[in-house]
């Protein structure tokens, strides 16, 4: 189940097919170079480390038959051991719904926040986007780092300091994406992936029936589930 929220509250609630028919997804402006991860730098670094560990394991497989298991264990890097520990601790069950993958650590912005305050929060939390909520905690929009960096919004490098000050003191509601699609925790992950592809957004806020934030589902959450055991159950 999907909903669309804006400054006036919930504007739509229905299925993926209905959402696409009313233009709730396709009408969103596509933004280039959106960061596709919830914790952008860290995720890419982790994926690089994972590829390195796998490469090291493959390169050593030809010689493993001629050496004892103890020697192999001695050569095992601390990073590889850590990766194995993390994989072994996963809850081994099919993953089919948003609530199986979403981040439950809610990082949001108040609709009264300034651009400068938003930058500080995104930087401090190491995230590329954050839902925007009103005084009651209801979803009203989504602010991404890409929205803050659009060239047409930034003062030119030779602009007066007052121009930059005016930019940083803008309210986030002047820049955020609104209305913004959201998703219920029990929604099928495949349908969320479809909305992310259609809208170009890096993720979707997860909300309950009252429009209160319950979490956030990012593209990186889905990708991580695809490459990690147990595999994402996309064809069950």
From TrEMBL:
InterPro entries: CBS_dom (IPR000644), CBS_dom_sf (IPR046342), Diverse_CBS-Domain (IPR051257). Keywords: CBS domain. It comes from the Bacteria. Residues 56-86 are annotated as: Disordered. The keyword Cytoplasm does not apply. Residues 56-69 have a biased composition (Low complexity). Residues 102-159, 176-234 form the CBS domain. PROSITE patterns: CBS. PANTHER family: CBS DOMAIN-CONTAINING PROTEIN CBSX3, MITOCHONDRIAL, REGULATORY PROTEIN. This is CBS domain pair family protein. It comes from Rhodoferax antarcticus ANT.BR.
């Amino acid at each position: 189940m999907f909903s669309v929220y804006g400054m006036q509250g919930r504007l739509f609630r229905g299925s993926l097919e209905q959402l696409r028919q009313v233009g709730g997804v396709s009408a969103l402006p596509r933004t280039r170079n959106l960061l596709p991860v919830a914790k952008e730098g860290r995720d890419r670094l982790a994926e690089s480390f994972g590829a390195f560990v796998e490469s090291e394991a493959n390169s050593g497989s030809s010689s493993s038959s001629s050496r004892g298991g103890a020697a192999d264990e001695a050569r095992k890097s601390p990073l590889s051991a850590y990766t194995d520990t993390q994989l072994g601790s996963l809850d081994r069950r099919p993953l089919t719904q948003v609530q199986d993958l979403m981040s439950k650590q809610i990082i949001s912005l108040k609709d009264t926040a300034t651009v400068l305050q938003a930058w500080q929060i995104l930087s401090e939390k190491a995230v590329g986007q954050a839902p925007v909520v009103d005084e009651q905690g209801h979803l009203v929009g989504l602010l991404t780092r890409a929205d803050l960096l659009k060239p047409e919004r930034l003062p030119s490098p030779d602009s007066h300091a007052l121009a930059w000050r005016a930019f940083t003191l803008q309210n986030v509601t002047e820049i955020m994406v609104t209305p913004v699609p959201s998703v219920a925790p029990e929604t099928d992950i495949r349908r969320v992936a479809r909305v992310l592809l259609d809208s170009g957004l890096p993720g979707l806020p997860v909300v309950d029936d009252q429009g209160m934030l319950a979490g956030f589902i990012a593209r990186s959450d889905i990708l991580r589930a695809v490459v990690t055991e147990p595999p994402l159950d996309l064809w069950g």
